[in-house]
Amino acid sequence: MIPYGRQNINQADIDAVVDVLQSDFLTQGHQVPLFEKKVAKYCASEYGVAVNSATSALHIACLALGLGEGDYLWTSPNTFIASANCGLYCGAKVDFVDIDPLTYNLSAQELEQKLIQAKKDNKLPRIVIPVHFSGQSCDMKKIYSLSKEYDFKIIEDASHAIGGKYLDQPIGGCQYSDITVFSFHPVKIITTAEGGLATTNDKGLFVHMQLLRSHGLTRDPELMTKKSEGDWYYQQVDLGLNYRMNELQAALGISQMERLDEFIDKRHFLQERYDQLLSSFSIIKPYQGPDSYSALHLYPIQIQIDKVKRTREEIFKSLRKNDIGVNVHYIPVHTQPYYLNMGFKKGDFPNAENYYERAISIPIFQGLTIEMQDEVVNVLKKALV
Ligand SMILES: *Cc1c(COP(=O)(O)O)cnc(C)c1O
Fold it and tell me: Which of 62, 174, 272, 278 makes the best surface tag, with the fewest CB within 10 Å?
């Protein structure tokens, strides 16, 4: 089976993890701060906070920005459920902004329309989470200017997008947001097995997220509310969680970061090759906007179902039967049973639903060879007739 995505682990990655296993610290040593500095530097952001998943990073990002009961969080329906669930963890209400049919990203135009209405209804969001779907940045300039006009905070869900650029700047630099979140799940661009990281340029948010990922406790006298009682002393100053990344994960992350640019180059090579090979197929290829240099986490095609005799499901089945490990990204979050129970309905976000009904993600990852890619194209060609 050729999967739709897969990690790439080399001997240097293995050696880095083994070195940590033989060292004094398996957790709370030097690797995590080094990894945080490396990612922050790469993204040209001031600070990085590494945690055990992007889901955890989204949660502490929302907490640090003060999200709570009575607040609204808005995100894209075309995302993994974690981008929305983080709002529910904080007791906030979640709502969605439909996607742009061209980029499949949260539409800045739809956002503006929804904000105008929400202002009248006195239901403006406290946080908006644009998701850089498949690694391509959302229209951050426009979303940022709306955040100033309507007074909301921005968390970029860049789980797909480390190594990508927006207006020639690395994604994660937070020029147009408060916090950016990355995922290092094995299927993403680089991996720490499980892991996530939040970048920010705001010292207060940085310090607060550091507290929140580790029980809300501190050994820093400056953060304490009363005098230290001795060298053993620590204080709990907030209600935090245990979301720490361990040293094995961070060492793997540091090693993977060395190859990030190489990974992105390979993905672009494969994308350009797919674009050529699929040009006569009855599909819509993923659009690449001029403002963005995508990290290309996914290569999502849309089947032109009016031009082929088979359904999306039949095409999907035939690809899987022929060992092409395709997938579908994403089932619109508002159509999940849990969200339907909250009052959302099918039809609420038609662009996301239309896209979903036609979408298939075909394999793209570092280790995909030309021969494997040709096999994907041949099987797809047969599946489409
Ligand atoms: C993978 C993913 C997440 C969650 O990442 P984890 O590290 O698995 O918690 C969140 N948002 C998006 C868009 C993702 O693709």
Answer: 272
Strand order in the sheet with 283-284: 283-284, 299-303, 359-362
Q: Are residues 156 and 174 in the same domain?
A: yes
Domain check: are 325 and 286 in the same one? yes
Q: Is the CB of 132 under 6 A from ligand 1?
A: no
> What CATH number is attached to the domain comprising 25?
3.40.640.10
- Residues 10-65 have pLDDT tens digits of 999 999 999 999 999 999 999 999 999 999 999 999 999 999 999 999 999 999 99
Q: Which atom of ligand 1 is nearest to the CA of 58?
A: 10
Residue 329 alpha carbon, nearest atom of ligand 1: 15
Cβ of residue 366 lying under 6 Å from some atom of ligand 1:
no
pLDDT tens, residue by residue, 259-303:
999 999 999 999 999 999 999 999 999 999 999 999 999 999 999
